[in-house]
Amino acid sequence: MVNSPEKMAGLFVFALVYILTVPIVCVPSDSKDAVVRQLSFSPASYKHAEFRGRSAGSPEQLHFPHGHQNNMRANSRPASASGPHNQGVDGSSEAQHEGFEIQQSLHNDFNSHFRPPLDRLSQVGRDEFGRRRIPHLRRRRAVTQETMNQTVPESQLGELVNFPQKLLNTAGRRFSLNSSSVNPEMFELTSGGVLSLGSGYRLDYEDSAMRSITMVVHAVSTSDPTDVVEITATLLVTDVDEAPVFTTEPQPFLATIRANSGAGYTIITLVAEDPEGAPVSYSKISVSPSQYEDRIEVRRTDVGNVRQCEIRTVGTANFDPDTITINVAARDRDTGGREATTTVSVLVGLRPPQFYSSSYQGAILENNGLDRTVNALGTSAKLQIRTKTFQEGAVTYTLANQGGGDSDLFSISNAGYIICRKVLDYETASPKLQSMTVTATQRVGNTDFSSTVGVTIQIEDMNDNPPIFNQSRYDATLVENVAVGTDILTVKAQDLDTGVNAHIDYSLVGTEDFEVVTHNTSSVFEGVIRIKRPLDYDRKEGAFCRFTVVAKDRGTPPRSASSSVQVTVTNINDEAPEFTIPDGVEYRVLENAAVNHVITQIQATDKDGDVVTYSFRSGSQNDGKFEIARQTGLIKLTQTIQPADDRFTLVILARDDGSCCTGTTTLTSTATIYVQVNGVNTQKPTFTSCSSYSPSIAEHSAVGTAVQTVSATDGDRGPNGVVTYTITTDPAGIFTINSTTGDIVVVVNTIDREQYPFSQVTVKGKDGGIPSLEGWCTFPVTIDDINDHAPEFDSAKYVANITVEHPITSNFVAIRASDDDVGNNGIITYSLLNDDGKFGILPANGFIYLTQLLTQAVGGVTGGGGGEVGGVTGVGVGEEGWGGEWERWVG
Prior knowledge:
This protein is mostly beta strands and 891 residues long. It contains five helices and 57 strands. Strand 14 and strand 15 form a beta hairpin. Mean pLDDT is 80; it is low at 1-5, 11-139 and 859-891.
C-alpha cells in the first residue's frame, strides 16, 4: 500500500481524535511552527476529508467537501468500552490499521503534555464524539496502565499473545479479559495470561472489524487484589493470500447418475469464492475409475456475478454400477494464485437423502410451554433439519432418543422442525443436553433409502431461581481495634440457575462500617466481609452492628436474596477519662474562707465505663492548702489563706481502673485549674494626703494644665482594693480627673480670677467591691491673677481753679484711678504728660501741685478769687505691673 502524504496527514488527525477524549487546543512552547488545532469530527466524516498542502511555516489545513462540515458530530458513534481504537462506522479499518503506530506515539506524547483535567476524565458519560468515558482515574484500586500491540496473520490458530512474555511487572498475577472490540467469546484467556483463539473461531482480515482488535485485560496481583495492571492490547490482523473456498452445500459433495445417462447430464453444480474477491476458474484434476475420464467434463457456467462450474457427462457409453470419484480444482486469478481442490463422489444408481449438516445443535428455554419449536443453538431462528435428495420422492423424518426409542420430550415434523412436547424445567431436567438421532427416509418404489444424523438440544436456563444463602444469619465477634481492611467473615449463596443467571454479586445494606468483596472460584461465589472504617465500641449504641448482606444474580431481570449479619464488637480500654470542664478554668475563693471550704467538684467520664479516681499531680502549686477526694473529685481548702496568697495552679490527674476490660491496663488524663484569691471588701478608700492638697493655677490656663494628683489607698485585695476617681464638686466646671491615676487637669481655658478667685473641689474614690465602698477628699484650688486689666479713671475730665498766689508744692487737685487686678498688677502710679514744667503730680496718690508760681493765667486753668491764673492742659497717669505697663490719659 502507498502511504501518501495526504493519507498520513489524515491518519495523524484520525489517531489524535480517537486518543484524546476531550478536544484540545495547544501550542507547544518549544516549537514555533507546531500548531495542534481543535478537532471535532466523527470517523464517519473522515473519508470525506482531505488535507491540502501547506507552505513553509503554515499549518496544514483540513478541508471537508460541501455538506459534511455540519454532519461531523451527527455521524459519530459510541465506541465500545474497550478503548478509543475501534473500527470506524465508515469501514475505514485500513486507515486505522496503518495509523496504529502513529496513534500510539501520539498517545504517549500527548498524554504526558496535554493530559485532560482529572475531574473531566473522571465523569462517567459520553464525550462530544459519543464515546463512553471510562472513569479509571478515580478507582480506588492501584491501577497501572500498560499498552501493547501484537501483529498476527489472519490464518493463525491457537495461541495469539503470551502477556507475561510481552510485558514486565505481570508475574504473579491472575489475568482476565475485561472487554473486547469484537465478540469476546472468540478468545480464551488463561489465568496465567495466555490468549488463544477459541475453538471454531478464526480471524478474518476481510472482516473490517477484525483488522484492529482492541481488548482490555486485567492482571490482578495474587497477593494484593488492589494491585491491578490494566493492559490495553491491540491485535493487528494481517492479510494472508487465501485459496478459494467451495461454498456449495451440503458437503461432502455427493451426486448420482444413471447407468445410461447420455451426454449433457448435469451431475452437480459447484461454487467457489475467493476471500479476497478475486475471480475464480475451475478445472478437472482426475476421474476415478480412469475409464470414465472422457465421459466427465468441468465447465464454468456463470449466473450473474456468481462464477460457478457444472460437472457434466459427455459421450454415450454406459456407466457400470459403481462409485465414481471426481477431483476438481478452483484457482483464483491473483498473481501467484492459490488453488483449492475438492472431491465429488458420484454413485451410479440410487442414493439415500443427504443431510445439510453432519450434526445439528438446538436450544430451548425452560418453562417454554407446549408445542414450542426448538431454535438453532445461539440464535433466535428455528432449527430445521434439511436434506438433499437425489431422486424423486418425499422424505419423512423420525426422532429417536439415545436408547433408540421415541423421545418423550421432543418430536419432529415432516418439514424437519423439532417440537417440544413437555414443559421443561432446567433444574430438574436430566440430562440438560439431550442427544437424539434423526432418521430421514425416502421411499422409491418399494425400497426405503435412509440416512441418520445426530441432534443435540440444550435445555437452557431461565433466571427463575433467586440466590439462596447457606445461612439465615451470620455472626462474628471482634475487638474494636481490629485494623481497617481485615476480613471478618465469609458469606455464601448458591443459585440453581447457570451462567450469568447464577453469577452472584454481593452488597451490604444498612452499614457504613463494613464492605463486602465478591470472590469467584470455579463458579463458586463467596462474599468476604471486611472492615471499611475504624470501629469504636464506645461510640456505638450497644455492642452490636446489625446489617444486611444481599446476593444478586446477573440474570435479566436479576433476582436477589438477603441474609442478616450481626457483628459483636468487644471493648478494650482505649478511652482515657475525659474531664467535663475545659482545661484552664478559673475558680475564686475569698481570703477569709474557712478551712474545709469547698472550691469545686471535678468530674471526668470514661466511655469504656471504667471507674475514675482523682488526685493532684506533682507540679500543682497548692502549697498543701487544698485536698481532692479520690472517689468524688471534691476539692476543699485545708488551710487558711495567707495575705501573700494570690493565685494557685492545681493539676488534676484522672485515672481509670480498666474494669471494662479485665483491669490490666489503666489510662490517665490531666486538667489544669486555677484558684484566684479574692479579698473581702472591709476597707474604704482613704485620701491620706487630702489635707495637704492646696494647688493654685493661673487664670486662663491652657486646657490640660496639671492641677493636682490625688491618691486614695484601700487595704483590700484584688478588685476590692482598686480605686477609681471622680470629681463630685467643681463649682466653676473647669476641671476633670483621670479615673485611674487621679490626675486633675484643666478642662476649659476660660478661668477668670476676677469671677472665681478660688474653687472648692471634691473628689470621690470608689473601690471595686460588691457592694463598693467610697471615700472623699475636698480641697481648695486658688486661681492666681495675671495682669489682664488696665487702670480705670474715676472721671473722664478734671477741672481745678487756683489763684496766682497758690503756693508752690501745694496740691490743688487729686486724680483717682482703679485696677481690677491684685497685687503688683493692681498698684497704680501717676504721671503728667505734655506739661510745661509748672505742675507736678505725686506718683503714688495722684495729687497735682505747682512747681512754679503763677504770674499769669494758664490756659485751661481758671484761678479763683481773682480770676483764672493757670490750668492743666493734660494729666497723665501711669502704672507699673507684673505683666507690663498700662497708661490711661485724661485731658
